[in-house]
Task: inverse folding
């Protein structure tokens, strides 16, 4: 054994047998070859797609934040005299959210939406939750997916404002109109999140002396829960995962309605909210133990 291969030495690598100048010949690649030009075009396409994905993620984050602020604003509705003012302010905020959605629609113009759906789904779900919450406060009913999509048709003739008259895709390209359609999955997940806001609205309304709202919310949540139960495990994984949270919200609202019906005359109105908050904590603890 040679000294180089001894205990303190090192073995000679195979590529050390080749001259140094021959090992560097691989770097002299013809940049104008068809293969290199093709890979450069692939690089530019992938970079452009990645940049667009990042822009959509930022827009989705802005849509989520503004939609949450709208929901917080709608929770401030405590009495009829202030309802119109808060609903008007909420509509202004939602118009600002739709301007962000317009930017998303412009980014997705000519693209397959499903390739970028993961980047925008969080914002769209939060927008559905805010719009459906506002619609429930106004009408005590659930807004449909078609009604939401009609609000997401934009035209440059209105300086970015919504155009309420729907048009075909061919007319959209001619008139400079953009549209973004909420997918059924986004709609279902947004409605599932709505149930949590309605549960909070129910408890807050009791504290303000509103006895009718809890029963209206309870009936509405039962209908929503029945609809989700029909979907079951056949729908997307996220839908079945949120079904448990929906059931929790329904149980809390039904518990509030039960206390109002049975013990409503015994408890003063200014103490009802405290009683319900204690019962809600007890339900949460029991569910955590089980």
Result:
């Amino acid at each position: 054994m040679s000294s180089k291969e001894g205990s303190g030495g090192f073995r000679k690598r195979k590529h050390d047998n080749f001259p140094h100048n021959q090992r560097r010949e691989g770097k002299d690649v013809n940049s104008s070859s068809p293969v290199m030009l093709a890979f450069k075009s692939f690089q530019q396409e992938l970079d452009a797609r990645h940049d667009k994905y990042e822009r959509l993620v930022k827009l989705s984050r802005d849509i989520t934040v503004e939609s949450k602020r709208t929901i917080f604003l709608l929770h401030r509705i405590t009495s009829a005299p202030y309802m119109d003012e808060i609903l008007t302010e909420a509509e202004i905020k939602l118009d600002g959210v739709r301007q962000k959605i317009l930017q998303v629609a412009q980014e997705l113009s000519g693209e397959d939406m499903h390739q970028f759906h993961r980047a925008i789904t969080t914002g769209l779900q939060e927008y559905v939750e805010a719009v459906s919450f506002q619609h429930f406060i106004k009408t005590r009913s659930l807004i449909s997916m078609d009604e939401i999509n009609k609000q997401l048709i934009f035209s440059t003739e209105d300086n970015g404002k919504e155009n309420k008259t729907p048009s075909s895709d061919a007319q959209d390209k001619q008139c400079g109109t953009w549209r973004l359609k909420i997918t059924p999955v986004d709609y279902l997940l947004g409605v599932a999140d709505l149930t949590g806001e309605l549960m909070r609205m129910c408890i807050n309304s009791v504290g303000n002396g509103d006895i009718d709202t809890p029963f209206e919310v309870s009936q509405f949540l039962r209908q929503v829960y029945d609809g989700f139960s029909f979907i079951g495990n056949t729908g997307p994984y996220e839908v079945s995962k949120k079904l448990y949270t929906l059931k929790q919200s329904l149980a809390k609202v039904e518990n509030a309605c039960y206390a109002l019906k049975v013990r409503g005359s015994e408890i003063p109105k200014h103490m009802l909210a405290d009683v319900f908050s204690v019962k809600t904590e007890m339900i949460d603890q029991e569910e955590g133990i089980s």
